[in-house]
Amino acid sequence: MTVWQPTDDGFADLTSHDSFIDGAPHNTFARLRREAPLVWTDWTDGEGFWSVTRHADILELNRNFKVMSSARGIRMEDQTYEEYLARRTFQETDPPEHMQTRIKVAKAFSKPVIAQFEDQIRDLCVDILDQALSDEEFDATKAIARQLPMRMLGRILGTPDEDLEWLVEKGDALIANTDPDFTEHVLDKMDTDEFRLLPFNSPAGAELYVYARDLMARKQAAGDTSGVLNLILQPGPDGSVISETEFRNFFCLLVAAGNDTTRYSIAAGIQAMCHQPELLDTLRSDDIWQTAADEIIRWASPAMYFRRTALDDLEMHGQTIRKGDKVLLWFVSGNRDDEAFDDPFRVNLARHPNRHLAFGQGGPHVCLGMWLARLEVRVLFEELVRRVKSIEPAGPHKFLRSNFVGGLKSLPVRVSLN
Amino acid sequence: MAKITWKQADGSAIEAEVADGTSLMEAAVANSVPGVIGECGGCLSCATCHVYVDETWLDKIGLADEFEDAMLDVAEAERREASRLSCQITASPALDGLVVHVPEV
Ligand code: HEM
Ligand code: FES
Prior knowledge:
The complex is a heterodimer. By secondary structure, chain A is α+β, with helices and mostly antiparallel strands.
């Protein structure tokens, strides 16, 4: 088995989810970084957009939030103002408004607060692995990667354990809304606009709305003021409280953002071990854990791009991004830029420093859950290598059909145990 | 220009001449100062650029504003009176000779 290699011809259509069903079209990104680092793409289903593919350019634009706004939508798809208002979270706001919410939730997801969950994460990992490794052959995405993130998020939010499987399913339907394996309502093939005002255009959003409301009501009735959700209901420094719609959208954001990104990072790490068996040995040395999780997450880059919208004209590489233009920051491409990383197509668990962009580094929206994600990935792999002697592919893998979230939706493996 | 010194808990130090207008976080990253990461690019969203301003400089540097103050609660290392997020301090001739201490974590 060889290391996964991109198979695209270097001219993949970035507007098409089908261009990503064999993994991200990295030959195309490599060509763009070389020949057309700022490139315009026309699109039949909406307004065209600019793509930014180099590491240094992404950093430069991401920090320039005064011109590169998140407040007109963060995905390729266009939104009306009505849709934007109904669906937005603080991720779709700009500083200083963004800051009002960010500081309310930041503490709950800070490195020291998250570090306190290490033992709970380890317990969950041990349970999941004991279950999964009782078979010699299994689908590593379903049996391992899919399980941990939602169970952990449930612990942080204070949802009852018996709801966790349901939340995993809704989370899938919510964000993987372009893959028919996950939802009956495939976004780019939808003939109804019934779900237009729901988070991620998905009916799962409606169910999550109701769930979040009931959960808060039950907790309030019980006098339970713990947890992240309560934290963001407190007034900010300026005395403002977030609206009910915004709150429910934030809940959906946590379910969606904390769910499959971490899952696909774990899956990508397991796949890398299948292809570079020396990684298993590397992971058996104690001092690798400072750097290993970030390299696995760089390699995975599951949140492939986020969009900004220009609030003013901006010059770059001799071209003008016009006021109102959409701009896609392709983090997945920046993470394979050989100007920023030695040998970017190899997993090097000791890579340091590792200034990857998988968490949207370099801007105000840098991932709120990054400390949690890093901790989950580290502990999961610590426990995995403790148990597994070897791991190899046991059949063809499948990538998600999405140009937004990249990951292995199925990864059959065969393991032998220590 | 300002000469800035970053001191580590183990006694080692890195010195650099920093151009006016450059933030101390950017300067630390450019000079590979261990422990100053700056994950949000200076947008006040991460607190990974936390430093302690040397006591002798506290008066000149001043205190954190309201947002920075809130974000200091998110930092990994213990918060002290001299705590600042170094992306919010920009070099200028007035800061020539400044010493900051990188927290131990
Ligand atoms: C490996 C796993 C993860 C990856 C790769 C990832 C990636 C990202 C990226 C790229 C952004 C920036 C979006 C932008 O620039 O507009 C982001 C933001 C965000 N992430 Fe994550 N994420 C991960 C895990 C998590 C987890 C576990 C949570 C929560 C439990 C989470 C919650 C959020 C939230 C709330 C935001 C919005 C922050 C803001 O706008 O200020 N993420 N994430
Ligand atoms: S660099 Fe993120 S707060 Fe200073």
